[in-house]
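Build the 3D complex.
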Amino acid sequence: MRIHIQNHPRQPPVFLVTPEQWAEAAERAGAEGAGHRVSFGASEVEFAAVGETIEVLIAGPAALKHLLPALQPDRAPALRFIFSTAAGVDGLAPADVPPVPFANNRGAHAEKAGEFVTMALLMLANDMPQCIEDQKKRHWGQGFTRGLRGRRLTVLGLGAMGGAAAEQAAHFGMRVTGIRATPAPHHACERVVGIEVLDEVLAETEFLLLSCPLTPATRKILDRRRIGLLPPGACVVNIGRGPLIDQDALCDALDAEKLGGAVLDVFDPEPVPEDDRIWTTRRMVMTPHVSVDDAVTYIPRSLDIFFANLNAFRRGAPLLTPVDFSRGY
Amino acid sequence: MRIHIQNHPRQPPVFLVTPEQWAEAAERAGAEGAGHRVSFGASEVEFAAVGETIEVLIAGPAALKHLLPALQPDRAPALRFIFSTAAGVDGLAPADVPPVPFANNRGAHAEKAGEFVTMALLMLANDMPQCIEDQKKRHWGQGFTRGLRGRRLTVLGLGAMGGAAAEQAAHFGMRVTGIRATPAPHHACERVVGIEVLDEVLAETEFLLLSCPLTPATRKILDRRRIGLLPPGACVVNIGRGPLIDQDALCDALDAEKLGGAVLDVFDPEPVPEDDRIWTTRRMVMTPHVSVDDAVTYIPRSLDIFFANLNAFRRGAPLLTPVDFSRGY
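Done.
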């Protein structure tokens, strides 16, 4: 097929598809990877030169957002399939996305997400936020902590990332409650419940993980009222999107010592402004939106997921990782 | 039997044996826990009042060190067995320890040690030392990192703690090399080698865990020369004892950016003096000797190990966790 890969010039290298990575992935894909005509672009001019002919587009969200006008049927008449090299599509207005099958790379983040959440849970259980604070003050403050076994984790969003996190938590003997739109059982969860009982679950949550997509339904899902439902000393981890949380209310709860700590990888807004109070909020550990993107495996795994979807698409089978813009993920 | 439990008044509560914990452990031990005459003490005066009659002593290292003169055959003629509620006995001069069977609680720390080392490895792999530094400076510095799969961990000291850490590392797909005095295979290690090839192993070590006892043979085992054998960017974790490392040489290597980071729970000396350079050494994460002692399970697990040893002792079988003062552990 006629495939075009559009990189965004200002993206970090971890998110750029190189011709070498493409060649290796095509070889891994076997027959599915052979016989394509492939071009690479990094500017709108480069895209315009090929827009009329391409059938398949591979791009990250920044490139996609820029290209949306050029992807409409009048300007990209042969376009039949779009693959996003990112899982979150909350930056794309559904009305602007051309009406062709659309898949994302969800699953590519799973292993790294499982590791990052494990780190975050262990840092919170070991009271690392306090240790970091003490080290800054040259203070030897011996506080002894409990391990993870038997403790309660709630995973809000049981997709590839939340599922991988739940598996690691179960490995360490935690009791995991999963929350998702369709509450089917999950092998790593003691129970899976629907979003309608979120308030009840929060009241018995020691550790809360946010790993759901950002949609109109999940925006500020952890608002001030719900933060107030968490037991004293509860801890929060966010690897989804910053606006899932009322960030100001979370900072209030931490500074008032109502919560035990937080490890956040995503913020509202990003990058975090220099004068934001969150930088110095008590027991707050921040990572700059890097938690789930493995510097080495991210693009290779994404391309493997692309080829699996391409195979389904060409057979007329359902896509493996379709994006449904009416749900927002 | 006539059992005495000596607590040290200035120890943190996590290390104190309460009558309730003793009663619960005795019940768990079944027949082995029944029929003993038990006393508790927290001062030398309290000990002196019972010293002549006791057959079994349970105490932590601080209490033991104080009691050593009172434990000699002339003053404690009935003493037949000592159990230490700590694994490290490096604070006790071998010549001063009375010549009776001596066991420690090694194994009580294993699960917590496995969790702490997992946290440390993930913090280092995720470049948390840099994230912590960046947060302090209100700097949004996006660096992407690799997961643990396939990466090389060397575990120096494959006892209960090192073994548990190796198991967790293997769970995350790391390639683990174990180093111990008697290089028998270990199920979580790709290979186990003797201490005589330490230098060669260091040269291919991405993450180095020190989890061995402190003895004359291991003091400063990671000296300046050996730190220099580690590849650029290698990371160090220490849950053993501070003097295993030439701390000044480690700080030099970190400040010179030759190493990628360190997570240390133990130091030389402790508590760390306020003016020690280590507090502000680059990419250094410090915890105040709390990593492997679970606030809830530490004493219950230690007492379970005590009863298992008591059972062996009374049957005339080898102790389960004997301390050999000629080896130092």
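The mean pLDDT of chain B is 97.
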